[in-house]
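Input chain follows. Return structure tokens only.
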Amino acid sequence: MKIKTWQIISVIFCFILGTSLHFVYELSGENNIIAIFSSVNESTWEHLKLVFFPMLITAIIGFFVVEKKNNNYWFAQMIGIICSMRIYNSIFLYIYRDYWAKL
């Protein structure tokens, strides 16, 4: 499979899994194992887990699915995860929190 196709599938998967992980902790009856991977409250740290774990899963799966032409696969995935977490953090802190603080 080509990288571009895999990345499109990964983005869709990450959106769906990240959104679902927001609610899994409560649905599991507040299971401590589930708390490691999903958000347990509305803090910034807990929301970063919703970005990190789906992207980590797709990076691991993608390593075996994508054609082996890339020497820098893990570096690219690491940079992607870090940038995504930084962008999410910026959006959450500067847009979402400021908006709700004014209401």
